[in-house]
Amino acid sequence: MSQKRHVYAFHEGDGKNKKLLGGKGANLCEMTQFGLNVPPGFVISTEACLDYLANESKTLPDNLMNGVRTHMEQVEAATGKGFGDAANPLLVSVRSGSAMSMPGMMDTILNLGLNSNTLEGVIEQTGDQRFGYDAYRRFIQLFGKVALSVPDEAFDEEFEAVKQNAHVTEDVGLSADDLKEICDRFLKVFEKHTGRPFPEDPYDQLEIAIKAVFGSWMGKRAVDYRRQFNITPDMANGTAVNVCTMVFGNRGNDSATGVAFTRNPGTGENKLFGEYLVNAQGEDVVAGIRTPKPIARLAEEMPEMAEQLEELRQKLESHYKEVQDFEFTIERGTLYCLQTRNGKMNATAMVRTSVEMVEEDLISKEQALLRIDPIYLEQMLYPRLNNENKAEPVAQGLPASPGAASGLAVFDADRAELMGKEQGQKVILLREETKPEDIHGFFASEGILTSRGGKTSHAAVVARGMGKPCVAGAEGISVDVQRREAVAKGTVIREGDMITIDGSSGNVFLGQIPMVEPDFTEELNRLLRWADEAAYLRVMANADTATDAGRALKYGAMGIGLCRTERMFNAVDRLPVVIEMIVAETPAQRQAALDKLLPMQRSDFKEILEVMSPKPVTIRLLDPPIHEFLPTEQQLLSDLNELHHLRNSVRGMNVLAGSMMLLQDPELARQEADSLRHMVDESLVEQAIEKKETMLRKVRTLTETNPMLGHRGVRLGITFPEIYSMQIRAILEAAAECAAKDLEVHPQMMVPQVCTAEELKRVKAMVDEIRVDVEAKYGQKINFRFGTMIEVVRACMRADSLVEEAEFFSFGTNDLTQATFSFSREDAENKFLPMYNQNDILKDNPFEVLDEKGVGKLMQLAVDWGRQKNSKLSVGICGEHGGHPSSIAFCHRAGLNYVSCSAPRVPVARLAAAHASLQQQ
Ligand code: ADP
Ligand code: MG
Ligand code: MG
Q1: Do 563 and 458 share a structural domain?
Q2: pLDDT tens digits, 221-269
Q3: Strand partners, 24
């Protein structure tokens, strides 16, 4: 059968080969080989595990036990002890370990090799009966439980019985005789549950243990875990078995055991961090039976050991060049290292250690950048909860937009605006779901909470765009807008009650939970500067207002890649004018409204250009279908209905008053008329009805079957040229005014939804005409660039002709993805995408992870065709993918110049851009 080698001594195994030896085994080998004090032992490979599992007869691979015996002899020689030797017994631990650490694999068995004979030897050698029996009873229980599934309770019952008979409450109160009795009882428990006597032969014990470890790879817990976390066979396949000489931290007060990090995993501080217990075995630290002491105390209790431990820390770090999380045991004054692995840290600690390890010349800047997963930085960039009192959430929804916020609950957008904006209170908008007309409530709120809808619901998408925390679809909350209250877990939340939402976890709490503000530490800034030096891609932000732009700068944005003018249209003081423009019946009426909008837009643009000077600001001309700015037909019908009621009652009153006159009771009639005087004049109601009816007619004429594929973007710009004219003029005048103040500004005009060069030509012609006019008016040349979004398939195909008009391309990958798949995003994500993903019909959600094979291919064609005609063509991306690390890597490979994403994502993107460059080298 197989001639493969299956067993490797710690001093010969390849420390880099985690796939073969498992993570724990590889590191035991590595540590042994670079001179750390690891108890002698050997690793049985993952290949042996796979061979065993593939073999139907469930026997170990040929010769495996021979290899084990040979290696055990080596260990015997190294330790001077004998496996099964009653006079001087060698005891070992049997530990599992695959290439990736995963719970669900078999637990470690300690003290293997003990039997009635070797036990005598241990007692003889240590002169400590109690120690001997304690070790034995631990072994019987662990072996029974771990290797042969004897339930813990069966052992615990006997243990408690002996304790009771001996009248002791603490384990330490048990005498050697008590422990001996426990061992006897345990052996019986073992026999009863397994139907065979406890194996006396150490090699039998070992063989059973090895098989159990191998078998645990296919155990339900392990299989479930691998499925849950997508651990594929190329990441980890099979488990290794580590056999390691036992060392004892429970041999008295000169012995101890502990776990430590070479640096603080919470803060990154360059100082040993961990815990230990004197006179204890490793498992006691984890089990939490006794409270361990902080590692700093070791310097007082065992100063010499503390020094050695510090040395061990230095050696580990200078070898692994990474923070280590390690296990140690001190047996009668000798320090052993039993395990090490790369330490898991929070983002703050990752960043700090990266920067400090570069300063210490431990790693290079490139290594410092590469050791941090870009997405990890998100943790640092949003406010997060400091839930020290462990408050229980009252509801859980989807983490729809990261960050946390506290505020007073409000149930509609108008109240949010009233309390949040006018009264300056912090509010959380709590609704069943949100609609475009709630937008002013978003602006006024700290965060958004909805009881319905998913991660792509209106609330989620808008909140993410604004960088506000959002929990969506918290179904445990029932909202009653009429009564201005909600109920969650039986608790009533009234308007004005304080609540806290965590958009990173989806949790909702009552009251205010303390918050940790995002920490833009000096270390993070330094790290990101290194990232910028290493990166080829430049990182822009999507920002719609000067405030957003300022925030983007804080995150290190190198410009604005997408400024959506329609967000400005939605502001409270603008919307009525925008509506006026839309409902205008004549060009003159429309022009009047546009004349009012021009100065507003000009000052908006000026502010953004000023804030960003001298960085580029890419402004997209109006994109959405204009009916989005109008009330919905449904809303209008219900308003009209109410107005008709009102008119009827006003009429009724007037009729009543009239009839009273007729009844010749002038006195009563006059009184009645007096009380009616404060009521609404009928003609006012009529006027209101007329206005609503006009609006309704307009809304109906603007209604489209497929608005997102309808009258929007450049199509709107060409059919209503006055709108684009106004915006173009506003941009150019804003630039001229900045330049007049000697501010260097770089506006870029971007046309949405373009599918043919002719469209771009028409808009360009408008631009040229207005430019001549504005330049004459301000007496200076205006510096700007003109470009196009690439977000429809035809635009990709026609890139070589679009490039004749456009100085830059910006891929709008949200729309381009919809267009490429012919999926509408909402429908896809709500209806069939999850099923497609689960069944591997599509691997990822293409709206989150850029579809390189389809959308990416179109992008690549467009880039190549564009650059063939204009090698200086600047190309970027401004869809949500622009902040996604793997999509950023693709953009790098495809030869883009920049990515643009939401402000808090900018640092993530900067690091991802650096990774993309470094990984290509
Ligand atoms: P885990 O993967 O759960 O950490 P380990 O194999 O590291 O499992 O072992 C569990 C505990 O037993 C740890 O505290 C470890 O330090 C201790 N241990 C393992 N092998 C030995 C040994 N040879 N001597 C002393 N303690 C050991
Ligand atoms: Mg361990
Ligand atoms: Mg678009």
Answers
A1: no
A2: 888 888 878 888 999 899 999 999 999 999 989 999 999 999 998 889 9
A3: none
